[in-house]
Design goal:
alpha/beta, Spore Coat Polysaccharide Biosynthesis Protein SpsA, Chain A, two-stranded antiparallel ribbon
């Protein structure tokens, strides 16, 4: 099974930790973020993994080689010339991701204990073109889904901005969920990335919103799992505390999403 890890971020929220270390190699619970994600993917059965790089990318290459790629097949999608964001990163990695099977995408700075294999299987049996991990976590920006969990739009509660253009966020029709940085994509979506508007740098969420009326982009709302965005100091500290509690056999007081 194929997967892609976003490891190209600048890590500006974690400075000064990322001044001389790529964000993906910042340790959490004694292990670099990237290592934790690779090991979790490997445990779930993913054996062909693409890692994109940008900031201090050679350190990531050296780290992977020093660990013999953790016993899986790893490709490097090199963005050191230009950081392409999530959508552009997936598009650039297309040669490694194309094929007859969907691929899972995982941010390097997301720590969770969800069942990745089960999440992947749920996508494969659904007939959807993409499945996004979502939850009812507190945020200012929400993806909006109908009762069948199909994506229709996006809203920024702080500014009132909505996408796509002309979308009406009817609260009686749509459910609000926060995106969890883990998704499964069927390669059929690549054909929608071939237009000039999707060349170079772009985010995957606006892409999803631009095609959700043509293809099925679905949410997978899960509850009862631990989830941390470890890309900022306060949540990195919470993740460290969670891992320490997990090691000692007590997770009391840790939030579930």
């Amino acid at each position: 099974m194929k997967a892609m890890i976003f490891a190209a971020g600048l890590g500006t929220r974690l400075r000064p930790l990322t001044d001389h270390t790529p964000k993906a190699l910042v340790p959490v619970g004694g292990k670099p973020m990237l290592q934790r994600v690779i090991e979790k993917l490997k445990e779930a059965g993913f054996d062909d993994i693409t890692v994109n790089i940008h900031h201090l990318g050679q350190q990531i290459i050296d780290f992977l080689e020093a660990h013999h790629h953790f016993g899986v097949n790893i490709h490097i999608s090199d963005e050191r010339d230009e950081l392409l964001d999530t959508g552009g990163g997936i598009r650039k990695a297309r040669p490694f991701l194309e094929g007859d099977e969907p691929f899972l995408v995982h941010n390097a700075d997301i720590l969770s204990d969800i069942d990745l294999a089960g999440f992947y299987r749920a996508h494969c049996s659904s007939g959807a073109d993409a499945t996004l991990l979502v939850s009812q976590r507190q945020t200012s920006r929400y993806l909006l889904f109908d009762a069948g969990n199909r994506l229709h739009g996006w809203i920024n509660k702080a500014t009132g901005e909505v996408k796509p253009q002309g979308f009406v966020p009817d609260p009686d029709r749509f459910l609000e969920y926060a995106f969890g940085g883990i998704h499964v994509i069927s390669p059929t979506l690549f054909r929608y990335m071939e237009g000039p508007q999707w060349s170079g740098k772009f985010s995957i969420v606006p892409f999803y919103l631009s095609v959700c009326d043509k293809v099925r982009i679905q949410g997978c709302p899960l509850q009862g799992f631990h989830w941390f965005d470890i890309g900022k100091p306060e949540t990195l500290a919470k993740a460290e505390a969670f891992l320490q509690e997990e090691k000692s056999g007590s997770n009391e007081g840790t939030a579930f999403f």
